[in-house]
What does this fold into?
Amino acid sequence: MKTNEEKLVMHSIQGKVRHPVMKLPGYRVGSDGTSRIVPATGSITYNFKIGDSCMGILGDHVEPGVSTKNSDEMEDAAYNTFACVGNVAKIITGEGKGDEGFVTGKHGGADHVMCYFSAATLEKLTLDDKILIKAFGSGLALSDYPGITCLNFDPRLLEKMNIKENDGFIEIGVTHIIPAKLMGSGLGMSSMYQGDYDIMSRDESAYKEFNLDTLRFGDIVYIKDHHNAYGPDYTENAGTVGVIIHGDSYISGHGPGMTVLMTGLNNVIRPFIDKEANLAKFFKVK
It folds into this structure.
């Protein structure tokens, strides 16, 4: 697939492992009216990674792997904008110095960039360690498909995905096809070059119909009738492809989050089911 990769800028951005935060007393009120105190965003998550289920976890918006952030507000805005899924992430301090992983997603609201590192590397990390990312992908375009907008997308990830070129459109393998009616938190944003938006998961019939119980961290999914070139917008025959980046939530209007990778109008992106369409497979994560 022809792209403009040779024109893209690769530059450095830097964050730090993000400590969990909490406002006391720390309760999160779910859509069922129940108050819970559970792990949420931030930290080093040792026992959930890309390829694992993101549903049914005793946590809220749990982020797999390593959650990172820049403490300076303007630098953090750039950090969250220029990091792209698939970018190389390198530890530059502490016992894990020199170990490499990659970006798996971006979480709006928390403004975290999540990275995958091996289990052995996680054991070396502390909450004081710094991560340097080789940001690459901003401005990516598919040369033969001007109707498709790419966001947050390292072109080297594009090469790993199950994509078939056709006459004026592409077909792409996804694990789930989600209707626009299930999209919640994140609607109203004017840009999806940072963060994510959520698949609402509280309706039992929709949960079963669209197989939300099988969603995993790192799954490539398709949102039907949503165009995201300038923020999420309901548009018939549009489509958006993204990656699942955080876990389910008890809170009304929330659920597993998706960072946008590409979007287009007029059925220029057409999904087909590929149950193995996950970052863990693409990057050969064990």
Remarks:
- The radius of gyration is 18 Å.
- Helices lie at 73-82, 119-122, 155-158, 204-209, 279-282.
